[in-house]
Specification:
The structure holds two protein chains of two kinds.
Chain A lengths: L1 H5 L5 H28 L1 H11 L3 H17 L10 H15 L19 H8 L8 H5 L4 H10 L2 H12 L4 H8 L3 H25 L3
Helix pairs in contact in A: 3-4, 3-5, 3-9, 4-5, 5-10, 6-11, 8-11, 9-11, 10-11
Chain B lengths: L5 H15 L5 H13 L1 H20 L6 H9 L6
Helix pairs in contact in B: 1-2, 1-3, 2-3
Classes of the chains: A mainly alpha, B mainly alpha.
């Protein structure tokens, strides 16, 4: 800019037009960012809905996430995973809101083994030889939603990100700011807790 | 159900999760698939886990309210 000012050939108008072009380019980048982010809102909401317990909370959280994302869009690096970037904002906001009161330690009482739910479902099926798909479909939608909500937050977060959000372990680790190994161990444990919840709520009543 | 080979099945249990999450490297993938070919016990569990995850994902899905989508669109920076 100093060079431009020093040059006798460069008029005020040219300087203005350089600035104008820069502003226009930035506006274009911002519009592109906002449109791209909005295009991901269904996916962001899907994850948010299962991270918190009510529809209203999820809606507030998504709205605050987009407000913050649009304010700080310059800190997003184009070409990186925008969905993960948005979810990172969302999970941080969720923590800030103090919705972590139920946070459970990584050590939980020992749950039933991985095969417990399967055996339980198969046991209660009249025809013990049904295929796996049919067996799974004995679980009601309500019981699954309830069972997932009953999994403690830090285990549920990774399940929601990986199983529902379809994030890789590495993305989930970055979003939650925990090591990949912790993602894996929480997933393993969280899924066991989920299955044990399912076994009790869905079929445990005993029919 | 075939006779489970305990050592391998423990190994398999360890590989089950990353296998379903598509996070195994080529060598581990081969190991997991070779074992699945041989062990009916594990094969059944893998299929169950696979269906369970697909099913959970399907039933917990709750579409976003169009009103929220409109509110999000309204957050965009106005074009001058």
């Amino acid at each position: 800019m100093t060079l431009l000012l020093a040059s006798p050939d460069v008029s005020e108008e040219t300087i203005d037009s350089v600035a104008a072009r820069r502003i226009a380019a930035e506006a274009r980048d911002r519009v592109r960012f906002e449109e791209e982010a909005l295009g991901l809102s269904d996916q962001v909401y899907r994850v948010a809905r299962r991270l918190v317990s009510s529809k209203e909370e999820a809606e507030d959280l998504v709205q605050d996430t987009y407000a913050r994302a649009f304010r700080s869009w310059r800190s997003y690096t184009p070409g990186t995973n925008l969905r993960a970037w948005l979810l990172r904002i969302l999970t941080n906001l969720n923590i800030d809101r103090g919705r972590r009161s139920q946070r459970a330690p990584d050590t939980q009482p020992l749950e039933e083994g991985d095969y417990f739910l399967y055996n339980k479902l198969e046991e209660t099926t009249a025809d013990g030889n049904q295929d796996e798909e049919r067996v799974v479909e004995r679980l009601s939608q309500d019981s699954i939603v309830e069972a997932l909500a009953a999994v403690p937050h830090n285990f549920r977060d990774v399940i929601v990100l990986v199983d529902i959000g379809d994030f890789t372990y590495a993305d989930a680790a970055q979003i939650l700011d925990i090591p990949v190994g912790t993602v894996m161990s929480r997933l393993h444990r969280g899924r066991r807790i989920l299955k044990s919840e399912l076994a009790t709520s869905a079929v445990g009543g005993g029919d | 159900m075939g006779e489970p080979q305990i050592d391998l099945c423990l190994k398999c249990e360890e590989l089950l999760q990353p296998y379903l999450d598509r996070e195994l490297n080529a060598e581990e993938l081969l190991e997991a698939e070779r074992h699945l070919d041989e062990c009916g016990f594990c094969r059944k569990r893998y299929r169950f886990e696979e269906h369970l995850r697909k099913y959970v994902r399907q039933v917990v899905d709750e579409p976003m309210d169009p009103a929220l989508k409109a509110r999000l669109a309204a957050l965009r920076t106005p074009l001058v």
